[in-house]
Design brief:
mainly alpha; globular; Growth Hormone, Chain: A; 73% helix
Length: 445
């Protein structure tokens, strides 16, 4: 038996949960700026919307490469002062802050794509150990609450970050494209994002502690053995055959879920500009206004997710985690598909509410279900491996969605959002087949 799993972990207070999760506020600040503005930046620099999904491949590919490796390394790390996961939090925060400052200063498309690779890799270095952090520190009865707290900060960070371009415009900052240069509203937003990312993650590094391995001698022996390059590679890539049944089942759920999300992040701006603002000209004022409105839409779904994060565990106790997740994905799928029917920009806020409910569950329930099925000493590695089933569908989407949008949907990106909604509904059905063997969820905090 995994020795660490037999150790009774202390029940943490609300503020301890707060401190250990606060770094996610900064992480999602960066992700939200990336999700809401990257396609807009590409378009401003002259990219063809048909190729957006290819340029976005940077995000899933870096996740595919970085997260299992960082998870493996953090599992085999221990420092008396820095702990196991926190060194990776801090290194990722420094690199991500630099990338966020560089992104809006791209003067050519190739520069923006290159910085996206750097930015996404750095964010992944910080983010992956945060998922394992909950499994490390919390008793199974508190794990759903731990992931819910992360979801709360993800929602809060995304709300503020998504609204920043609109906020700066309201303060008199220019939102216009002048000479093909990225608007000042976007530049200032990314500068703020770099600062917030670094400060929020540093707060968790400084204020949260970590539990040492229960058997330090055994841990050091395993760590020494894993230093062999051959052993490390074998362990990193050999885990697919050792995945628990629950993880395999959740992999199919994640596959269809993240096709839907990737479609939404890539194509909402183009879809709204075309179907609501009546333009596909990225240099026009109407296109830039559509980009700012998409930021407001994304802020709505992120804000809803922050509120729903603390409600979902209550429903999970009344039913089950997989029933809650299936229900939320159904609501989200129907909401995403309904964008096709809306031509009034103000009404676009309504489906974002449903998507926010789904997003809260996506960030909470799969990880809570998974954590109960994983060996504690390999929590970071398996959480990183689980990310394969987040990034593989994004890679598939990146390779295919551009072709589908242009040739099957005649360039109407709003139909790509409908396809995303259908994929989310498929994920909801697959969720009902998942085996959740974890202990019943108790009080939220």
């Amino acid at each position: 038996m995994d020795m660490q799993s037999t150790v009774l972990k202390p029940r943490l207070s609300f503020w301890q949960l707060w401190n250990m999760s606060f770094g996610f506020f900064g992480i999602q600040f960066g992700f939200a700026l990336q999700n809401a503005n990257t396609s807009r930046i590409f378009a401003t620099l002259g990219a063809d919307p048909e190729n957006f999904s290819l340029y976005w491949l940077a995000a899933p590919v870096t996740g595919l490469l970085i997260q299992p490796i960082v998870g493996y390394l953090s599992d085999n790390t221990w420092h008396p002062k820095w702990g196991r996961r926190r060194p990776f939090f801090f290194i990722g925060a420094v690199l991500a802050a630099i990338a966020l400052f560089l992104m809006p200063n791209s003067t050519a498309l190739w520069m923006a794509v290159a910085v996206l690779w750097m930015m996404d890799a750095a964010i992944n270095v910080s983010m992956e150990p945060f998922r394992a952090f909950v499994g490390d520190k919390l008793d199974p009865s508190q794990q759903t609450a731990g992931y819910a707290m992360q979801t709360f900060f993800i929602g809060c960070g995304a709300v503020i970050a998504s609204l920043l371009p609109t906020f700066f415009e309201s303060m008199g900052v220019s939102n216009a494209v002048i000479g093909g240069v990225i608007p000042d509203t976007v530049r200032y937003s990314f500068y703020a994002g770099g600062l917030v990312f670094f400060l929020a993650v540093t707060w968790t590094v400084v204020s949260a502690d970590e539990l040492p391995p229960p058997d330090m001698e055994a841990f050091n022996k395993e760590r020494a053995a894993s230093r062999s390059v051959g052993v490390a590679i074998a362990e990193i890539f050999g885990g697919f055959g050792k995945m628990p049944r629950t993880m395999v089942q959740l992999a199919f759920v994640q596959f269809f879920t993240w096709i839907a999300l990737f479609a939404m992040w890539i194509y909402t701006g183009t879809a709204i500009a075309d179907s609501v603002y009546g333009t596909t000209d990225a240099q026009s004022t109407a296109y830039q206004d559509a980009g700012s409105w998409v930021g407001i839409m994304f802020a709505v779904y992120s804000g809803v997710s922050a509120l729903a994060a603390f409600i979902l565990p209550v429903f999970a106790r009344m039913t089950s985690r997989k029933v809650v997740h299936a229900t939320c994905l159904t609501i989200g799928g129907l909401s995403l598909a309904s964008v096709f029917l809306i031509t009034d920009k103000n009404m676009l806020v309504v489906p974002m509410i449903g998507i926010g409910i789904a997003w809260a569950s996506i960030l909470t329930m799969p990880y809570a279900i998974l954590a109960g099925s994983l060996p504690a000493k390999r929590m970071g590695y398996f959480m990183g491996l689980f990310n394969f089933f987040v990034v593989i569908p994004q890679i598939v989407s990146g390779l295919l969605l551009g072709f589908v949008t242009k040739h099957l949907f005649d360039g109407h990106a709003v139909l790509t959002l409908v396809l995303g909604g259908v994929c989310m509904l498929i994920a909801a059905l697959l969720t009902l087949l998942v085996t959740d063997k974890a202990a019943p969820v108790r009080a939220a905090v």
